[in-house]
Amino acid sequence: MKNTYESPFNSRYASKEMQELFSPDMKFKTWRKLWIALAEAEKELGLNITDEQIEELKKFQDDINYDVAAKREAEVRHDVMAHVFAYGEQCPKAKPIIHLGATSCYVGDNTDIIIMTEALKLVKKKIINVMNLLANFAMEYKDLPTLAFTHFQPAQLTTVGKRACLWLQDLMMDLEDIDFQLSKAKLLGSKGTTGTQASFLELFDGNHEKVKKLDELIARKMGYDSVFPVSGQTYPRKLDSQILSVLSGIAQSAYKFSNDIRLLQHLKEIEEPFEKNQIGSSAMAYKRNPMRTERICALARYVIIDAMNPAITASTQWFERTLDDSANKRISIPEAFLAVDAILNIYINVVDGLVVYPKVIEQHINNELPFMATENIMMNAVKKGGDRQELHERIRVHSMEAAKQVKVEGKENDLIERIAKDEMFNLNLEELKEILNPHNFVGRAPQQVNEFIKEYIEPVLKANHDLLGVTVELKV
């Protein structure tokens, strides 16, 4: 048992894959890749850098002497220069050209962009898997009528599958935002201390074309198509705000789903997975608390609030650079990704094990549908020769009495039996039950599910088929 604080994202929530993306090892290895890309690009553009120096840098690309870097940082209080020093200790021939012409943000900011981009790809992978599970669920229950609610009051009917499509459509909107963000991913490049590239212009003896080409070469070597055309010392902090806005959107979608499941679990219509030996309450042994969806809500709330951090940071940066972004950024960005990763892990787990109780759903429909069907009943009675105005008054009286039975006396809704006994309606019990078939009241819900899944979701799943197959294991 550790005797110092450990983030719950590491010990309880986020996946190993997401944790590794934001690990120090990932960061510092990416720094070295960027130093190699810089040296290669500078060599290709004519600077006096040898193949031997570059090979030496590559030899130690993943073999970081952390002890040397830590000792040096304690002396100089500068993490980038400490790692330049440590790299130089391993690569004496390349030492003079490591970080040549660059400022700290060359490695720091480009690395941050690379890690956020890879993390966003992992988020996309998990969203695709949630969407696949929800699509299967929607198709399985596309025809199962259920009470729809407005204001959490019984309204008309829908189907269980149609409701799942509402959750699915939210995620589709999030996926579109992810794809847009990934489509415009670009590096900071090599912009120098205030973004003017003055140091590189000096290195290349005033050759502007070579300085421009340097940016292009570095981006290509790191797997990117472009760089920000202009910048201060850092990439625009607006990027952080845009990315966390996408994560906030995912949190909002998951929150909506989770709240719906919590309400449905209260109604005993649908439940999240509950394992054989799981304990719902330390005091009440019978409890089946929706702890997984509650956890999604808790983490989603954190992400939604956390998204304010880069928004404020982006709006308060002074001129070409201030450092009040750094401490905030190194907390808010990774934890937003770790939280969303955890949310999607739970989302996958819950959807994969949702339990539907059709009999309970049917019982709730039967309690409410007679009131909803009064217009249909009245029209059928009119067809048999009844007077619409007289029938309206009679059905109003019967409805009030049936409501009293339910609300005041706690009995079953007997509206249909009352109408069957009333000769004015000229409808027997079998005819009334046929009118009250729940499938008559779901409108186009089943067709909407079919159309939505076939026309919108299946093309997305097909295009991202290689991302399917994620398995998750919750720690608690």
Task: Describe what this molecule looks like in 3D.
The chain has 476 residues and is mainly alpha-helical. It has a domain at 374-435: Ribonucleotide Reductase Protein R1, domain 1 (Orthogonal Bundle). The chain contains 20 helices and four strands. Strands 1-2 form a two-stranded antiparallel sheet. α8 packs parallel to α20 and α11 (238-267) runs antiparallel to α12 (291-306). It is elongated and about 105 Å long. The two termini are 17 Å apart. The mean pLDDT is 93.
Structural topology:
Layout: H1 8-13, H2 16-21, H3 24-44, H4 51-59, H5 66-76, H6 79-90, H7 104-140, E1 145-150, E2 153-159, H8 160-183, H9 198-203, H10 208-221, H11 238-267, E3 270-271, H12 291-306, H13 308-316, H14 326-352, E4 355-356, H15 358-372, H16 374-383, H17 388-407, H18 415-421, H19 429-435, H20 445-463
Antiparallel strand pairs: 1-2, 3-4
Helix pairs in contact: 3-7, 3-10, 5-6, 7-8, 7-14, 7-20, 8-11, 8-20, 11-12, 11-13, 11-14, 12-14, 16-17
